[in-house]
Amino acid sequence: MAESLSVLANEIVGCRLCPRLVDWREKVATDPPRRFQGHAYWARPLPGFGDPRATVVVVGLAPAAHGGNRTGRVFTGDRSGDWLYAALHRAGLANQARSEHRDDGLRLRSAYVTAVNRCVPPGNRPTPTERDNCLPYLVEELRLLDRARVIVALGSFAWDGSLRALRELGQPIPRPRPRFAHGAEAVVGPYSLIGCYHPSQQNTFTGRLTQAMLDELFARARELADVRPR
Fold it and tell me: Which of 197, 144, 134 is nearest to 164 (CA)?
């Protein structure tokens, strides 16, 4: 399983299907803000990261311009990642609370973090074509993560992308189509899909998403995935 995910990761990293996103991810890397001057940016698509035996899969929108696009790991090096990995650590799904760079020793247990789109999009808004170009990578990750039973969708874009990926895997989508909300749940074949507000500063600074809300949600994800305490 780990080898198959590694092969897929190499395929993802080499992708250049979306010219607008290729241009943008590389442009961002050439003109970073002052605090990141001198950093060697990854500036390539991002594969998922985590435990090949994961039962919980966390799906985001896309890498951040100066987060994953800089560090080369999804949700790493930005405030959203700080919130996410701290919550995973509190839930017992990560060995440490921080994710700063690819060699920082972070390991996930029974969890895998990925995204619908693998390149940073201008304004955090991929086009439908860009979403569809990237979707097969999420489909293949879910196919390879054959122990996965819970998908946590961070935001409505990830919720929609997860449903699209599950449909491509041949899973029956409930009717009416499940709608995103924080804490919303939908059963799709063998998977439980859970909605979560994205841990962006827009949500965390305003109190729309709190640490307690994240902890409650990941406790529910562990319960549904039957992740045993260490």
Answer: 134
Beta carbons of 114 and 105 less than 8 angstroms apart:
no
pLDDT at 227 over 70: no
- The structure tokens 């990642």 sit at 81
Q: What is the pLDDT of residue 34?
A: 92
Which residues neighbour 222 within 8 Å (Cβ) at sequence distance 6 or greater? Answer: 56, 91, 92, 93
Task: State pTM to two decimals.
Answer: 0.96
What are 19-38's pLDDT values in tens digits? Answer: 999 999 999 999 999 999 98
| Domains of the chain in sequence order | 2-225 (3.40.470.10)
Q: Which helix (H) or strand (E) holds 13?
A: helix 2-13
Q: What's the rounded Cα separation, in Å, for the pair 50 and 140?
A: 15
CA–CA separation, 168 and 30 (whole Å):
37
